[in-house]
Amino acid sequence: MAVNPLVQSLKGKLIVSVQAYPGEPMRHPETMAQIARACELGGAAAIRCQGLSDIAAIKGRVEIPIIGLWKEGHDGVYITPTLRHAVACVNAGADVVAIDATDRPRPDGRTFEETVRDLRAQCETIVMADCMTIEDIRRGVACGCDIASTTLSHKKPAIDTTLDDGPDLALLAEAAKEFPGFPVICEGHVHTPADARAAIDAGAWAVVSGTAITHPTSITSWFKAAIEA
């Protein structure tokens, strides 16, 4: 299968997620742009970020591709939940748009497949399917997405008891076996360099790490917990 040249450039590389949560001191587009630039200097091949202001600010600061999304809400489909959100991400400067690929209801009534179809009719963009299960990855492949990712795999309603605190290596291996040559990116719970290496060894096209690199509040809490245990 043909792979988009931009997606091909990410093979075997690190993508860094640069996001801050509402109410945090770092939640400011200029701060996010500075962190993104620092990650680029460290060797990140792309930046994943959320929100129109952050996408635009980071796009103006780095030379590597931007994977953009727009989170709205906390339950159900909240990662780029509608066509409107997806088009806005493209217009803000995202090179790749990440969209929840589950079959859960969306605020605008479209299915995931309809969202991808209508987005491609309006915009020239690369689409990343954020997946929870192998069924979601199949859905993303079937409707012509350029990339699938394991972003939502730790949010399954019934968590697989074989999952530990690391990435979902079983899902990666299953997807790599079923769709050889298709870009399936590991995202979620990549907390150490060893986690990232294990994801590549399991068949990941590339690896996204966020919290362990760009979220000092979480990193500080990990050290604090270890010291006080």
From TrEMBL:
InterPro entries: Aldolase_TIM (IPR013785), NanE (IPR007260), RibuloseP-bd_barrel (IPR011060). It is an enzyme of class 5 (isomerase). Pathway: Amino-sugar metabolism; N-acetylneuraminate degradation; D-fructose 6-phosphate from N-acetylneuraminate: step 3/5. GO terms for biological process: N-acetylmannosamine catabolic process; N-acetylneuraminate catabolic process. It catalyses: an N-acyl-D-glucosamine 6-phosphate = an N-acyl-D-mannosamine 6-phosphate. CDD domains: NanE. Signal peptide: none annotated. One of its GO terms (molecular function) is N-acylglucosamine-6-phosphate 2-epimerase activity. Converts N-acetylmannosamine-6-phosphate (ManNAc-6-P) to N-acetylglucosamine-6-phosphate (GlcNAc-6-P). This is N-acylglucosamine-6-phosphate 2-epimerase. It comes from Tractidigestivibacter scatoligenes.
